[in-house]
Amino acid sequence: MIGRIIETPACLAEGAAHLVAVEPRFEQALALTGPLPLRRRKDGFAALLDAIVSQQVSVAAGNAIWGRLRDAGLTGPRKVMWATDDDLRACGLSRQKIRYAKALAGARIDYKALRGLPDEEVVAILTEVPGIGRWRAEIYAMFSLGRADVFAPADLALQESARVLFDLPDRPSEKTLRAMAEPWSPWRGVAARALWAYYHVAKEREGIR
Q: Left, alpha or beta for 155 (phi > 0: left; psi -120 to 50: alpha)?
């Protein structure tokens, strides 16, 4: 069982209605954010390579590096495997990110098969690849696969948004926020979108790329 897939704004509206029913503070957040963004992305190797590229750099820098990789034709697994370190370095990848990109290219992940696997199996497969932690795997499941009940409690923007919305004395830990989110099932992916949107309103900055 893979549960609901978020495909349209109607899915988000259904999830938002559920969240308001189980936790009234979401009504307060949604009144400020308005309709939530769908945030669906393509799945596959390029989506995860782009995620590796964007780690620990600004959005502008990540976009620039990705543009150079695309222009060089280095966004597919075979091309990345065949590329030299100098080729990848010339596009802006650090030594560590070159290692991660090569590891991802060599992992031979069946991306189509991931679409039919349960959330935890998707996370388990992806986190076997160096450079892909649980947070990144959950983001992939949420946005590239559209999983409606995946949450990413290690995300600092989600933690800070939850602190403000729920008037907590401190930013909740990953473990605490994961427990807080359990009652929001089966729409925890919508809760994440709501908290990111609320973070944007409360902090006047983006919480997720």
A: beta
